[in-house]
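Encode chain A's predicted structure.
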Amino acid sequence: MEDVQTRIAGFILSDLLFGDESRMPSPDESLVSSGIVDSTGILEIIEFIEAEFGVTVDDTETVPENLDGVARLADFVARKLR
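Encoded structure for chain A:
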């Protein structure tokens, strides 16, 4: 599980924050409310987790409870991998 969270955080840091560690949110912080991502950023995250972890994100799963935060994303991916 920690590896999943680390890989997601790494993607956010490198691809969305362009390496600016000072802007990296805590695992439980909202990516949307903190201004890290907008709707386009969410799509980028979905594309990443589908490619990186080999899972499919259904339209019904694109809700904040699954996608808005590093910890929530890691939990979501872990559930999909089970």
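The domain at 2-81 is CATH 1.10.1200.10 (Non-ribosomal Peptide Synthetase Peptidyl Carrier Protein; Chain A).
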